[in-house]
Amino acid sequence: MSTIDALRGRVGAATESDNPFMALVRPPYVLLLPLAVLLLVMFVGPMLAIVVFSVQTGNAISLSPSMWTFDHYAEIIGGMASGEGVYGDVLVNTTAVSAVTTVATLVFSYPAAYALARKIERYKTVFLLVLIIPLFTSVNIRVFGWALFLVKNGVLDSVVGLFGVSNYPTMMYQRWTIILGTTYVYMPFMLFPIYLSMLSIEDETLAAARDLGANRWTLFRRIILPLSKPGVIIGSLFVFILSLGADVEAQILGGGSIFTMASNINYSFGYSQNWPLGSAQAVGLLIITVICGVIILRTINLKEIASRGDA
Amino acid sequence: MLQATNLRKEYGSLVAVDDVDLEIETGEFATIVGPSGSGKSTLLHMLAGHLEPTGGRITLDGTDITDTKPQERPTSLVFQSWALFPHMTVRENIEFPIRTTGRSVDGQVEELLEQVQLDPEIQADKNVSELSGGQRQRVALARSLAYDPDILLLDEPLASLDYVLQKQLQRELADLNVELDMTFVYVTHSLEAALVMSDKLFVIDEGDLIQTGPPEEIYREPNNKFIAEFMGDANVFGADAVESEPGTATVTSDEFDGTATVSTHVEGDLAYLVVRHDDCVVEPELHRPLGAEVHVDNILVRGNTVLVECSSVSTDDDYVAEVDYDRFETTDIDVGDTAFLQWEAEKSILVPE
Amino acid sequence: MSVESRSLTERLGTGAWYGYVALVALFFLMPLFSLVIASFYDGRFFSIVDYEFSLDWYRAALASGSIRSAFMNTVRISVPVTILSTIIGTGGAIAYTRYEFPWQEQFKLLALLPIFFPLILLGLGMSMWANVIGLGYGVVPSIIGELVWISPIVMFVVSITALGIDPNVEEAARDLGADTITLYREITLPLIKDGVVSGAIFAFVLSWNNYYIVSYLSGAQSTITTWIHGRMTQGFTPVVPAVASLIFYVSLLLVVAAFVVEFREESG
After folding, report:
1. Residues 6+ apart with CB under 8 A from B151
2. Which of A6, A277, B127, C213 could connect to C145 by a Cys-Cys bridge, CB 3.0–4.6 Å?
3. CATH fourth-level superfamily of A83-308
4. What value of ipTM does the predicted structure carry?
């Protein structure tokens, strides 16, 4: 790219001679204002509100509280620290679910992403479609499908019943059932970033490495693994954050008795109607999400994805 | 006449174009030439209106157009990547500027395609993705001409084409310039292109305009060592020159033998003697006023001429002579021999740094 | 792929890869298969042995009043969301990819951040917010809530397309006399058309299938997804798989259509 292309690339916004208010009605501002306003009012607002509400007393919330308290935080953190009670369980369950889900999705997605990017030629679009379809169906539909599969007298039961296997422990309502559900729901979020990273590795790079004497293991360790790192990082953070919000999976596959952070938040809002308490729990989730989200967004290079997307 | 005064472009602390003055007559084929990163594209895009100058003015026939937007300027730019509209056919691309300027389409597409040596019947309704590089270049040209500009600006449009096609298109562009009597401003790093097509050259380096003039003048009388080397294959010797009269100097050097009087065209510390490869010969004996004793390292036959690569006996610097094949044969010189690289005094020039 | 002769071991190797991906694909499809199987079953609990194919549950689904009203609510939400998110997201994409303005990278951060938020967090945050600012619950709040999550996704998809356009093309159009309206009408918008259409289809399918946001913002109104959720947790009837399968079929068709649009060859 010539120097000029690197330095210019885009049209500058309104020149200094323009009236600043007139500038708002012209591109780019007129184009981005709706989105910006929408997000400031309905995204930033609510997120800040969560923080504000978390320190309010009683069960009610308002924008200008007269009294505030850290009681809710004390309850939560105390419970987590002591490992007892609801919050102790929540901490253990949530960590287990999210950590295991992240690892499981990584382990299963990595080879699939590699195969899709480099080994599969025929039916590639079909495979990609199959892998992306679940993202477009509602979470509870997908989880429900698993319930139908695993439940007593369900699909799995019927199929293995044909082979005479009938007495085995129930598959549902275990902690690992939830993990199966979350792994299923969030695997695409690990697979696609890694897939895109793999696509960026040019055939010529690998051919050159082989030419210089690299065997399969070296090829993997020194070239493929490092070059796929951005995808792995993005995917892992993505899955980790999203799995922290796994409420439906816990409810349906866990039978409502195993509490994760998300399902407990839901409970605080729904059944016990304690919004400040729910908010306090949500604040932790919020902080983690924002941090991971910013890291992901800084790691993503949109231009790169654009140039590889036609593979 | 297109005139730019004190044109300047800064990007923060980087000065891409440093107070450049240009004057181009109507109908002239002017070329801005310089190495990569010299600021020539930046300069061109300021003329086109796509970049806002940090300082300076641009006037066309007396009217100040510095603040005129590109869509209203009577200039049209042929981009390096041609920038054809990928979703349109050839015809639609060419019709675009006709419609935006409020005119009606009336056979101009066919006329312009023929002018750029394309057959309208075959090409006009193809989608641009079906065309070869050379064809796209011609369509880009036709499209810019369809705008009916006063000035056609070209940003290295031939750079990605093969050599033969480049030469052919260079000739066509030169012809078109005369045929249309339209001012052309061409930007390139290729010296050859500049020499072939231009009426006037502007040599630019690191944002500065370092020499202006007709190509032959710059070729024969470069203002400094950089331009001399940039303008073509040349041997450069360090020299001591003493001005005897205004316009001439007597030159001697540690790096070559002999002494001669050479005319000078520029002032300053004339520390270098420059002589072109093809003005030098290599012969066993020193017959000419200026020459250097050399070891012959390599002999490359190039059709009608021979490139003799050699290195100085005293300084080990490398030099090249391009000699006529038949004449060189008569000298019986071979690789490893010692001989004299020599030239006529008036073929060499003295330049500062 | 380099041109090497395909030995048997190599073919086995590639076959193994295909096999693994096929397994993963199967895994992805299993719950959806179960759903479809269950929806065709005649009887309260099914077993493969007694399987009887029946469309009864589909008929029941289409006849039910509560399902119909949930469906209507879903439509009332999804159509405006699709239209609005496409416009808003495309606007953001064009602004980000084709212009330069102050705080540009921060804008991108803000605009795309909602994509990475767990939906439950978005849902409950907006729900509380809706309460205190007097927005309330219902169809309109659900629309606004879904816009918050879906507009960034549209912006992401359209940005990818927009970044594939040579910036010189728009400059050339300006150079050749185009004013802003002509530029957008004849150059910019036609060139990103495929991305916008895919984005719109994604928006529609995603809004249709959204659970968390609508469950927190629709209040008393139920949508298809909240209806399904309600039945799932309190009183299962086989109509539920039928309804869920219907949603799935439509989603599948639309996503395939979006894929075709996004990846088809450039025609003349």
Report:
1. B2, B47, B60, B74, B75, B76, B182, B183, B184, B185
2. C213
3. MetI-like (1.10.3720.10)
4. 0.81
